[in-house]
Amino acid sequence: MDPAKTPLGQMLLDEITPVVMVLSTPSVEEACLKNGLSFLHMLTPFSSFNNIDVPVRTASDQPYRLQKFKLRLYYASAVRKPDLEVAKEHLRQVITEAGEKQFSELSLDTPEINHVLENYQSGNAPSWLHFFNKELIRAVSFSEHETFDHPVACLLAVSSKDEQPINRFIDLFNTNKLPSLLNDGMMDPKILKHYLLVHDNQDGLADRATKILTEMRSTFGTSDCALLCINSSTDAPVKHEENPWASYLWQNSDGSPGQHLGFFLNTDDITMIKDLMQDFSSKHIIPSMEQKIRVLNQQVSATRKGFRNQIKNLWWRKGKEDGTDSANGPMYGFSSTESQIRVLGDYAFMLKDYELALSNYRLISTDYKLDKAWKRYAGVQEMMGLAYFMLDQSRKEAEYCMENAFTTYLKLGSSGQQNATRCGLWWIEMLKARDLYKEAAPIYFRICGEDILHSAVMLEQASYCYSSKPSMLRKFGFHLVLSGDRYNKCDQIKHAIRTYRSALSVFSRTTWSHIKDHVHFHIGQWYASLGMCDVAVKHMLEILACGHQSKTTQELFLSDFLQIVQKTGQTFEVSRLQLPVINTSSLKVVFEDHRTFGSASAANTRESLWRSLEEEIIPSFSSTKSNWLELQSKLISKEYRESNVCVAGEAVKVNVEFKNPLQIPIPVSGVTLICKHFPSAVEVKSDENISRRENDNAGKCEELTACRDMCSENSFLASEVDFLLRGGETTMVQLSVTPREEGTLEVIGVRWKLLGSIVGFHDFDFNHVKKNTLKGKGKGKRSTNEILKFLVIKSIPKLQGSIHPFPDKAHVGDLWHLVLELRNPSEFPVKNLKMKISHPRFLNIGNQESMKSELPACLMKKVDSVPSGANANPFNKSDTVFMFPEGTTVQGATPFAWPLWFRAAFPGKISLYISIYYEIGDISSVIKYRVLRLQYNLQVLPSLDVSFQISPSSLRLQEFLVRMDVVNKTASEDFLVNQLSSIGSNWEISLLQPADTIFPSKSLKAGQAVSCFLTLKNCRSLLAAKDNISLVPKPVKNDIILVPQGSEDSVYDVSSEPLVNFHHYEKQQQELQHEAQGDLNTVDFVLISRPLQSNSDAGFVGPPVVMSHYACHCSTASTGPISWLLDGPRTLHHNFSASFCEINLKMLLHNSSDATAFVRITTSDSAVNGGHLNSANTAVSESSSDDQGGWRHVTPVNEVKVTSNISGTQPETPLSLGSVSPYIWSGSSSTKIRLESMSSAEIPLQICMFSPGIYDLSNYVLHWNLLLAEGQGDQDEMRRQSGKCVGYTYYLTVLQST
Amino acid sequence: MATTACFIIVSRNDIPIYESEVGTATKREDAAQLHQFILHAALDIVQDLAWTTSAMYLKSIDRFNDLVVSVYVTAGHTRFMLLHDSRNDDGIKSFFQEVHELYIKILLNPLYLPGSRITSSHFDTKVRALARKYL
């Protein structure tokens, strides 16, 4: 790559060229101004040559030819250091103009990153940046330490009009007008001079001019004088096709068009100027420079080259060291060797003899370094770098030199800053020329000095470096943001916006929240400050959901946003407003077709639960259709089946969850659903409408407005909700829309007003959201819009129902009387009511008569009433579905009431579901029936815990000992235990001890436990035994009053309606828990209690007056259906010396089952056979030491007495009977009898004893076998049909009689 | 302990999944976004550097004024980025290694979806403790 072709090469060839100082008289300027040009400007276009072709020889006589050459022309007054402040102001102007221009071109859409990259690719930065850089470099021209800006020649121009032109020439080169560089001795004042006489042809003929020229020639020498004739075109202005001045006069921003420049200069004039300049450069400047190079080179070689000179130089410098310690190092006059070397280098550089330049720069740089002349050192280093670059060798060296120069300039502080900037820019260009953009970017960053505006521009350029391939987009964005910040600080808002917007192309989809917020917030602010509030709002909207920011930042964002919105003075309508956040997955639609809901909680219950509940009451279509091909389609048209149906006048509710991501509260108002309603006729069109809406995103807003217009047509009514969302709060809002006319209703989205000024829309777009609608109906595949699309049918009656007073809290056992109230606000009646309750244990449907009954009174036993035989079997109706009486219709204002009994069956949180089915009479509609779903929740607390333990009485057959344990499980409640009853007429109970002793305080305190003992008698068997004929059971005493309530000793009737019904369900329930057992041997108890009136808990709706506790299936017989009793004497005296003892016993057997039983009694004599002597085993092992007859250790006292009695008299007997049982069952060893159902039998038994002692007569076994009737076994296979019972302990004491 | 330090874990999709300011310096209002900007920009360099070495600890890879970015890249290309102003290479290395262990424990949690935000408060306190210890 040719270094000269690179941008930097071009720049160097343009900028580091010989300077020609121009001195002109006012009359010369006057003549030129006729063309709208100054003298300098007139010459400028012709001072650069592309093909000058001048032979040059290097210092070592190597010839080469210069092709490109350029002169820089400056007026003498301009040859000085530019004023910093003026330059700055100029630069600011440049930037501001560029800002305006670029900003107006800026489109409002966020630029795509690819687009941005294309723009900035390969350093193709905006052109104004190049210009800016050039100006920046120009700002440090004509410095003292660099000689390439020092004029090489001087062009003196005098007009032919001037008086005494020769004197004018001399006057012009007067020292006090010359630039300070020449006067201060920084420059050699002996400078090449060229004298030019300017003649204006309009002033007359050139005679006078030629005369003066000859005079000049004689005075200044022939070669140094020239004549220039201008303004030859007399009348007609010359139109230049390519105006050579136009491109040079960029400064004329007030815009005189290029065409008017130089219109008095005809082609001859231009050719003359051209020739003049070419002649000037090729014949004068270049040879003189060449000449100077030679001279200087010789001088330098003489003084500095060679070993001796170097040593001398070193020595000399060392000695000089301590003397000069000024900041800039020593001053070097033009005649000093250092200065001459520098001039030599620069001249060589300008004549493109880079080798020579480099060698001189190298030479001088060590000197400057030793002298600590840092600025000069840096300048030389810079030139070395450039020379290396132009030679295209040793890139590393070049970069090193540039870096060295750069850092040295920076070390100088503010005085070196400008030079550092220039050096940096050259360095960057050098890197860019080698495609090292990434390395160039940090240098831009380093250039940034104190001047914020400049650093902003530099940072922007740095960002463009990062955008070149391979791009580093994040760095690109970051530097743009940095630059934008600096622009902002300099009030260059438009630039700031531009850079931030470019950065947005990188950051628009970022997940780095702080970055995103920062960018959007600032763009918004800046746009607002420019008054472009619409755009500002657009950007501010992006940062509203800034939950990650601190609270103060959130407040700042929100308040700024509000301010901007208020500035615009209009309400904005924004789709997908981020505040508050809508949780689309929480969306829930509740609508009522044939299913209607009594409460919101009922609607929230799972559909499957209701379905299973309603299975029996809803007529199924599948049963009615005879053929799968027809009927189904006849019953409901396809359209009705496939879309959701709702009824006109009934609200469709949509639950939407709003979440506030911020920590500050936000008010949200006017939350409504956006809906569309189509009358039935335009049904088809609506589909088109929707699809169009989906395609056409831009037109969405108009569409939505249109929707709201439709709302005003009263085809539907949408509810409005206002609420305040606290920080971090999530609220579920129920919105409803009520269609008023038939047709199609579609819910499109939700709209709300935030902070009272901005309207947000949110479309319910389910494309990627899992559907969460309640009424899926198995149509999961339906398109998303279908779910929110409803077919509105004409109004049909809807039942409203409630149960009151429904408790929130109850104790287990609480018995309440409730009323179900149904209302039908419409004029059409409903009929065929059916009801089903999910928990019949809790809720029981009463009779119409019990509507008015008072709770405690209706349970009391009427003294004179017939035992409620009518209610004996109340379950003739279907067990689960309750049909309201035939002809029940609900219509009009009067509510329909039906009594319900409530009893809290078990503790816990309970949800009760009630479905009421009804059919719509008199109107033909798609919906033939509807279902009202009610749901109630309540909390049931534990109260009394009752348990029973029953053991057979050993005294009497059919009598049992019952222990009742009652525990009060509440924490604070006291209860009165009123009554214990056994259910049915079979069992009679009585207390073993007086009630007062059980409940001394009459009440059961919290946490207290009480046990009491009762006897239980099976009167059924007794009755059956007595007379089978009497069918009407005699009233038996099956109620015990434990604590009398009040004065009247009234007894609760356990067979009254609610109690018996609940008993039925409790029994069913407990049957599942227990093993199924024979009905006849189980007894059910009811414990009736009531809370003590000291009830302070407000949660109860009125104190429940009665509580009932059921204990069912308390089994009496643990062994089987057969019970028996061994009856006989317990103690007897016998004289064993006379004979052995014979004792007669009786065994009473009772069959309590309802089948005939065969019983076999097997006696066994072997006592040692411990297998069936369970109870006596321990006694046997204890007395194993002396196995004496039948004696057992009973009490030590007895033992002493008795043993002493017998030991002497019967010493041998035990030994002889060692292995024989002490008693023998006499008679048959096995007896078999047949026992009819519910009958008893008596079997005589006899035993023989041979010695006195205490005997355990338990070694017999009862085998029983039930003879089941046909079919009975199938019914209940679980029941045991045969079994074996081991005899129980029966102690018999036989004593020796005296 | 460094006066300014910002620790960010960036998932392989360039999404920050954990952020904490662990410096002792009093918080400036714009510190958070500046730190994010610097670290975000440094990702460009990590992207290039990560494949040039087999070491996980990339040392300090980028700087902005006096703030230095040190990066540690896990095998799953999750990047731990620390912005700091103190020069304590060994401490930073150990910090990264220990945080890596903590991060692996997070990954082992079956309820944690890799690449999602780390919300564990336990992790947060541990990281802060490590920062106090090493930085």
UniProtKB/TrEMBL annotation, chain A:
Gene3D superfamilies per record: Tetratricopeptide repeat domain
TPPC8 first Ig-like domain segment(s): 605-760
Domain named TPPC8 C-terminal Ig-like: residues: 1200-1259
InterPro entries assigned to the protein according to its UniProt record, in alphabetical order: Ig_TPPC8_1st, Ig_TPPC8_C, TPR-like_helical_dom_sf, TRAPP_III_complex_Trs85
Cellular component aspect of the GO annotation: TRAPPIII protein complex
Listed PANTHER family: TRAFFICKING PROTEIN PARTICLE COMPLEX SUBUNIT 8 (PTHR12975:SF6), TRANSPORT PROTEIN TRAPP (PTHR12975)
Protein name according to UniProt: Trafficking protein particle complex subunit 8
Organism: Acacia crassicarpa
UniProtKB/TrEMBL annotation, chain B:
Record SUPFAM superfamilies: SNARE-like
GO biological process, one term: endoplasmic reticulum to Golgi vesicle-mediated transport
Pfam families for this protein: Sedlin_N
GO cellular component terms, A-Z: cytoplasm
Residues annotated as transmembrane: none
Listed Gene3D superfamilies: 3.30.450.70
Protein name per its UniProtKB record: Trafficking protein particle complex subunit 2
